[in-house]
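Record 1 of the preview.
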Amino acid sequence: MTTFVIKVLQRTQLSHSQADIKPFIYVRSSWLNDEAEFDFLTTGDHQNYRGSLKFEELRKAASELEQSYDAFFAECQKAMTTHMGLQGFDYEITHESPEQQVFKMYKCEGYETLFLEVPLRKVSNCYQLLDAAIELGQQQAQVAPVATVSSEEQRLKACTLFEYEQYVKDSKLKEAEMLKKFVLLLNSKKAHIRDLKNKLEERSPMQSKQQRISDREEDEVYGAVTQAMDLENDSD
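->
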């Protein structure tokens, strides 16, 4: 199994009112014997996704594009394992429906061709991606530099690991702040409900007392009218 951790630019359509903020996608890919497993973390919505792709699907895609499977596979793997993406390729996570998200990779040379499509599911954490990044960093520190790996590539990988760890820390801090605000708001709502309940309990005895006074006054008025009618009957 070969594992890679990279960062690529998320494809976006910039509108006139939209700020020029570049969203990124962190990608962990593990290439097994018959499939590739992926973990994604997007900086746009702070969401984690997971998916997998059978190599048989790559074989079908290569056949549809009338390309050699080996060449197509090698190009797809290189595009998914190159830091900041392979030149000529675009990457995005689309929301096909509220329940279904899909990672797509396009080759854009002359015309746009969909090369890769991975159905995703949301996951609650990104620990696998972070663990893989840490393991790769430790392996690079322990193994002597290979002649084929340039110092610039090593620097970019180290930079990606640092950026990712910092992003995870910032995300956790934002999550903790939001949770704190939610707890304060919830406590405020509870206090308001208790205050309303206390006021209601204070008003209930007063309303009962007023009702008794009203009933007594009504009885006195009714008795007086009845007495007056009896006196008229007696005079007859």
